[in-house]
Target: histidine kinase
Amino acid sequence: MFSCFRPLRTFCLFLVLLAVGSRQAALAQSPALDSLRRLARQPQPDTSRVLLLCAISDQYWVLRTDSAEAYARRALALARRARYVHGEGEALNRLGAALRERNLAQALELFQASLHLAETHHDLRLQAQNLRSIGIIYVYLRDRQQGLSYYFQALRIGEKLHDERRMVIELSNIGLAYDLYNQLDSAGYYQQQAYALAQRLHSSTNYILYGLGQVARKQGRLAQAQSYYRRSIAESAALGHQRSSNFAYVGLATLYQQQGRLDSSIYYARLGNQAAQRNGFLRGVLNASTLLTQNFKTRGPADSALKYQTLLLAMKDTLFGQEKVMRLQNINYQARQREQKAAADQAALKTRYHTYGLVGLLLGLLVLVGLLVRHYRVQQRANAALQASLAELKTTQFQLVQREKMAFLGELTAGVAHELQNPLSFVKKFAEVSTDLVDEINGAQRLARDGKLEREILDGLKQNIMNISTHGQRATAIIKGMLEHARTGSTPREATDLNLLIEENLRLAYQAAQNQHPGFEATLTRQLAAALPAVAVVAPDLGRVLLNLCTNALYAVRQRQQQEPAAAYEPAVVVSSRQLPAAVEIRVSDNGGGIPAAVRTKIFQPFFTTKPVGEGTGLGLSLSHDIISTGHGGTLTVESAEGRGTEFIITLPWPG
Model:
């Protein structure tokens, strides 16, 4: 009867020792933990506090699991109150890690719940954390296939995230799993990969060194194994990591047991047992107690062997009790059943959708065939009418084109004839007068030479000849303008500095105005965009447009200057350029008399001009509009207000 309760009494004694060890561990808390606890005492948003409590649980996990559990539960409660799903998943994972040593079934439930939240919200980092945690449980249960499957899934996520520190942990865990199954080549390969990556990242290697020591010991490289174990012990002590200290102490104790050095084996096994008790690491207590039981059975005394054997049995009962194993198996079975049901439901849903799709496709094809038949019949009826009207349409189209050509030619001819009548009439008139003057001077010379009369006649003759020349030049200008309109072919475009082109033509127009009207002055303002890019244009054509617009602006301000007092009016012309999202804009504005609304609609028509007879052909703006719209694909528009001035706006498309 007493023997039945002896393991229970021993386990209760262990819990007392564990509490004492926990208080001792509290005195050895890391600076990082102290910093986190100070931060936790400050005001924090709920989401930040949840993650902070999880971080504190992580720190306590290497010191003592009861405190890690307490902080994980606080984090879980706060996350659920705040409806912080990511924080809830993190807290469930920490709580599972804290409970894993004494209740594998409950830990697995918590990890699976956390994994479900991570998958639902596509949280890859939390998925990897839970896959690793679930893999550890299956490794504990010696389920090689399941354990390694979860480990490798976690490793693939780490590679996908390029999280090399996470990859160090996954590689080392895979190595430890292969060591547990005595596949030493694979164990050594993954531990070496983990060690090389950790060295490059300057991260901790305490677990990796223990894994390398295990491989070396089992392969008979005992001196190398001893070196690895001692380095792991030193690094674990520096980190305050009780759990990895237990691993390294037990590994070294096992090495000394193999060598028959039982006193050293007992010494390090006891250190490993103490580290595990301080941490609450029941599996570590089990491993250390197993070594101590074997050593004391061999060396004595027997009571020490009985003491550790009792503790060993209590740990086995706690970790591997039949009820817990059965519950764990049931959870695993239920999880597989749910997965199978979900897969079956998904397959049925795919089949149903496939069936619906086929039926819908068939109905669609039937409807399509009906529509095609109907369309074919309608098209046959329409084709007959279309073929009959096509010939008539072509004939009518040809006639319309011919009529339009003749109408345009007639209009153009009438315009040219009308415009040429004026200068030719003047030429005819002045030629007749010149003939009369020549006859007169010849008659006067026959009678008597009169020097004064002769000079007057010669002056008149000279003036007539000048008038003939002027009106001849006007006729030439009309013909030149018409040739410009009729010009065919295209000049290649070149990248041009528009600001320079604007400056040059404004200067030429101003010089021409001053040469024609000495004493004329006007204020010229340039508002040119500094960073205007080069634009592909036909520079001579665009220069002609700019020169025409600047000349018109200067003419307009001079006309108003002649009509108003000098003190009340100052002539001004403004040219500007700017870059628009898909075009370049150029503006030429003046403060002249403006253009009446009735006239504005006609200014781009050939031969229309507001200048007096003899001062303009009426082709400048027409040609400018044609150069911008047809030659460059842009627009030329005008805005004007009577008494305030006129502004011409050029937009040139630019693919920038």
In short: The first strand starts at residue 494 and ends at 496. The first helix runs from residue 2 to 26. The beta strands are 494-496, 523-528, 535-537, 572-579, 583-590, 635-641, 645-653.
